[in-house]
C-alpha cells in the first residue's frame, strides 16, 4: 500500500485536512511533518465539525496512529487542550505519537512573535502569532528545547536559563517589553512532561516500520508551497518546508519511501497575511469568492485575499513539490460567475513569464495573462461524479490538467466528505 504525501499547492487553506481525512480512512498511520498550531483543519463529518490545528486529522479513526513528527513545532498546552476537546467529543486521541525530537513552542516564542510583528509595522508578515517563527529560529540557532528535554529536568532548567538570558535582553532592550522568569516556565513544562509521557516515541522508527510492514501511511502537510521557507514568497512565508521534501526530513524517512504526492489546490486561489499575489481580485468578484467560499481563516478568523486560479504558481508547485496528481477543491464556489479565468503566464517589463519568476520583485509588478473560459450557472454542490458536472466545469478541470501536466485525481464541490469524488 502506498505512502502518500498530501501537500498544499497554493498559499495554504486549500482543504488538505479534508483530503488527508478522506485518505486517513483506511490508513494505518497519518503523520504531520512540519508547522505547528498555525495550521487549521476543519473536518466535517455529517453534522459534526472538527477544527484541529496540531493533531493529525486521522485521529478521528480508532484504527489510525496519528503522528506528530520531528519537523513540527509543538505548543504542549495547545496539544493537550486539543486532545481534551477530542475526548469531550467522544474521540479517543490516545493512539497519538509525538516525536521526542520535535521542538517545543515556549512562552517567549509566542511573545516574540507578537512583539516582532508590532515592531515591523507596515512590513509585518501577518503571522498567526503562535510562536512558530521564533521556535524554528531557535531550532536552527541550536537554542531550541525539544520534547525529549522535558524528561531531563536539569537540562531543561539549564537550557531555559541560557536561552532566557538572551531572550530577556531582546525582549527588554529591543522590544521594550517585560523580561520572563524561567522558574514558572520550567514548572509549567514539567507538568506537561508527565501528561505527554505516554505519547512520546521514536516516530521515525514507527513510520519506517509501518512502511516496511506495507501499511498505508499518509503524510499530512500544513500551509502550502507558496508559504514554504525555501520555495515560497519569502519573507512572507512560514518557517518550515510544506513541500513534499519536508515530509522526508520532518518525518525521518527517505525519498524512496514516498509513492505519491497529492497536491491540493482550490479552483481559485487565496492567501492570508501579506505578500505578493499576482491574481488577487480587489473587486466584487473577489468579494464574492470570500462570501461564497467562506474565506475566513480557521485559526485567526482573518479574511482571506482571493483571486483567479494561478497556473504559473500551480505549475511551480507541481515542480518543487514533486506533485504527481492534483485535488481541485471548492469547484462549487465558482458557480454563477458567468465566465471564469485562469492565469497562464505573467507579463512584466515587456517580458513574458511562463515559469514562476526567479526574481520575486516580478511578482509585485506583473500582470497576469488570463484565459477566459465559459462559466456554469448550475449549483454543482450535489454532484457526485465528474460526468454529472456541467460541460464548462469539466472543461475547466481538463484545462487545469493540461496546464499542470499532472492529472486531477480528486474534485470537491462542498464541505461534506461525500462532496469529494474521484473523476473516474
Ligand atoms: P506563521 O506560520 O504563523 O509564522 O505565519 C507566516 C505566514 O504564513 C503568514 O502569512 C500566515 O498567514 C501564513 N500561514 C501560516 N499558517 C497558515 C495556514 O495554515 N494557512 C494559511 N496561511 C498560513
Q: What is the general shape? A: globular
CATH class type of the largest domain: Alpha Beta
Strand order in the largest sheet: 9-7-5-2-10-1-11-15-19-20
The CATH topology of the largest domain is given as Adenylosuccinate Synthetase, Chain A, domain 1
Mean pLDDT: 95
The tally of helices reads: 12
* Helix share bin: 25-40%
Quaternary form: single chain
Distance between the termini: 20 Å
Attached small molecules: inosinic acid
Strands, count: 20
Structural class: alpha/beta
Query: Strand portion, in percent?
Result: 15-25%
List segments where confidence is low: pLDDT < 50 over at least 5 consecutive residues: none
CATH architecture call of the largest domain? 3-Layer(aba) Sandwich
Instruction: Return the domain count.
Output: 3
Biggest beta-sheet profile: 10 strands, mixed
Rg from Cα: 22 Å
Q: Please, what is the CATH homologous superfamily of the largest domain?
A: Adenylosuccinate Synthetase, subunit A, domain 1
Amino acid at each position: 500500500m502506498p505512502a502518500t504525501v498530501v501537500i498544499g499547492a497554493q498559499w495554504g487553506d486549500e482543504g488538505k485536512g479534508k483530503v488527508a481525512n478522506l485518505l486517513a480512512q483506511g490508513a494505518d498511520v497519518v503523520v504531520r511533518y512540519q508547522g505547528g498550531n498555525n495550521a487549521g483543519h476543519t473536518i466535517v463529518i455529517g453534522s459534526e465539525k472538527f477544527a484541529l490545528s496540531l493533531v493529525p486529522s486521522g485521529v478521528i479513526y480508532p484504527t489510525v496512529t496519528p503522528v506528530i513528527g520531528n519537523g513540527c513545532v509543538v505548543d504542549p498546552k495547545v496539544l493537550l487542550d486539543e486532545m481534551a476537546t477530542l475526548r469531550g467529543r467522544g474521540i479517543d486521541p490516545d493512539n497519538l505519537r509525538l516525536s521526542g525530537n520535535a521542538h517545543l513552542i515556549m512562552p517567549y516564542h509566542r511573545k516574540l512573535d507578537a512583539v516582532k510583528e508590532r515592531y515591523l509595522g507596515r512590513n509585518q508578515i501577518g503571522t498567526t502569532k503562535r510562536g512558530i517563527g521564533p521556535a524554528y529560529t531557535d531550532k536552527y540557532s541550536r537554542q531550541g528545547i525539544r520534547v525529549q528535554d522535558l524528561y531531563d529536568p536539569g537540562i531543561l532548567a539549564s537550557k531555559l536559563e541560557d536561552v532566557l538570558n538572551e531572550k530577556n535582553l531582546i525582549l527588554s532592550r529591543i522590544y521594550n517589553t517585560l523580561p520572563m522568569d524561567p522558574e514558572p516556565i520550567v514548572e509549567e513544562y514539567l507538568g506537561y512532561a508527565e501528561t505527554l509521557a505516554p505519547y512520546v516515541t521514536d516516530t521515525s522508527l514507527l513510520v519506517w516500520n509501518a512502511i516496511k510492514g506495507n501499511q498505508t501511511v499518509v503524510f499530512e502537510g500544513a500551509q502550502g508551497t507558496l508559504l514554504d521557507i525555501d520555495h515560497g514568497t519569502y519573507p512572507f512565508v512560514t518557517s518550515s518546508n510544506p513541500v513534499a521534501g519536508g515530509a522526508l526530513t520532518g518525518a525521518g524517512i527517505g525519498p524512496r519511501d514516498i509513492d505519491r504526492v497529492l497536491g491540493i489546490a482550490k479552483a481559485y486561489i487565496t492567501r492570508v497575511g501579506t505578500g505578493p499575489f499576482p491574481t488577487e481580485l480587489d473587486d466584487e468578484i473577489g468579494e464574492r469568492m470570500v462570501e461564497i467560499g467562506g474565506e475566513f481563516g480557521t485559526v485567526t478568523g482573518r479574511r482571506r485575499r482571493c483571486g483567479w486560479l494561478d497556473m504559473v504558481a500551480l505549475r511551480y508547485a507541481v515542480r518543487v513539490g514533486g506533485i504527481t496528481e492534483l485535488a481541485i477543491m471548492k469547484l462549487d464556489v465558482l458557480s454563477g460567475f458567468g465566465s471564469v479565468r485562469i492565469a497562464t503566464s505573467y507579463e512584466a517589463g515587456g517580458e513574458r513569464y511562463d515559469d514562476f519568476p526567479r526574481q520575486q520583485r516580478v511578482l509585485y509588478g506583473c500582470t497576469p495573462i488570463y484565459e477566459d473560459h465559459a462559466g456554469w450557472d448550475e449549483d454543482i454542490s450535489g454532484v457526485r461524479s465528474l460526468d454529472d458536472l456541467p460541460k464548462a466545469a469539466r472543461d475547466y478541470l481538463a484545462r487545469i490538467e493540461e496546464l499542470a501536466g499532472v492529472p486531477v485525481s480528486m474534485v470537491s464541490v462542498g464541505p461534506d466528505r461525500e462532496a469529494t469524488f474521484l473523476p473516474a
